[in-house]
């Protein structure tokens, strides 16, 4: 697998618009891609993820459950479980952050008020020490070469990632890459690795 440092990233250029405008614009870009094309690109992303040492070395995968036109994580979940890895998915808390709950399948999940699939509230959440050596797949609408991302606006992932000790990885179709630096604030947490349908981009110089 080829790792490439950020810089000179060929992509669709971003804009200087605010985050809200970017979210609206990038949703349209993502939704416009035909489902058949998305499936082909997502299969390449999965192959690149599985070929990475970060994925291979991780015994625990933290991941969202994909919806609508997001990069498919349901196949990733199924194949990770089949290969013997542990998988945990997020649940929103009253403190507006995330906690992750280990699952054995996608059965028995319910839809949260934000539309995402979550585990039942009665199931115990993993503790921070259990995240050591794991990877976390982080959703987003658009990413830049510094690992900045435009998410969905709630700040849940940034609050969780501020204390997360593992590798932060984004699954990205090439059209979701911006060659312009995205607007970001001090509390926004950058991604370590972008796994695209073409290659893996190393975007954090501190990433080991």
Automatic annotation (TrEMBL):
Keyword field contains tRNA processing: no
Family: Belongs to the 5-formyltetrahydrofolate cyclo-ligase family.
EC number, as in UniProt: 6.3.3.2
Taxonomic source organism: Lancefieldella rimae
Keywords: ATP-binding, Magnesium, Metal-binding, Nucleotide-binding
Domain of life the protein comes from: Bacteria
Catalytic reaction annotation: (6S)-5-formyl-5,6,7,8-tetrahydrofolate + ATP = (6R)-5,10-methenyltetrahydrofolate + ADP + phosphate
Lineage of producing organism: Bacteria, Bacillati, Actinomycetota, Coriobacteriia, Coriobacteriales
Designated name of the protein: 5-formyltetrahydrofolate cyclo-ligase
InterPro entries in the record: FTHF_cligase, FTHF_cligase-like_sf, NagB/RpiA_transferase-like
Necessary cofactors: Mg(2+)
Keyword field contains Metal-binding: yes
PANTHER family tied to this protein: 5-FORMYLTETRAHYDROFOLATE CYCLO-LIGASE (PTHR23407:SF1), ATPASE INHIBITOR/5-FORMYLTETRAHYDROFOLATE CYCLO-LIGASE (PTHR23407)
SUPFAM superfamilies for the chain: NagB/RpiA/CoA transferase-like (SSF100950)
Pfam families tied to this protein: 5-FTHF_cyc-lig
